[in-house]
Design brief:
The chain is 22% helix and 45% strand. A hairpin with a 2-residue loop joins strand 1 and strand 2 (9-19). Strands 1-2-3-4-5 form a five-stranded antiparallel β-sheet, covered by helices on one side. The chain contains one helix and five strands. The protein is globular and about 35 Å long. It starts with a strand and ends with a helix.
Length: 74
């Protein structure tokens, strides 16, 4: 994982997920989630791309790990 850097601005509670030396997804904390949505948003950039929300960063990391392993055949 590494901090998300957009245009030179490093964002708080916002992470790019790296697997096998590639950026494969992102996890970030949403201070104002829609209605009763879980606050940690995750998304993968592998094909097929997926996204969802979790209660904790740890849950989001584990979900991203499972998705990437599943689609990569690993």
């Amino acid at each position: 994982m590494k901090r998300t850097d957009i245009g030179g601005e490093v964002l708080k509670d916002d992470w790019v997920i790296i697997w096998d030396c590639r950026e494969v997804g992102r996890i970030y904390f949403n201070d104002f989630p829609y209605k009763n949505a879980k606050p940690w948003k995750w998304a993968t950039w592998v094909i097929p791309a997926e996204s969802e929300r979790e209660e904790t960063m740890e849950e989001a990391r584990e979900t991203v790990r499972r998705v990437v392993l599943r689609v990569s055949g690993g």
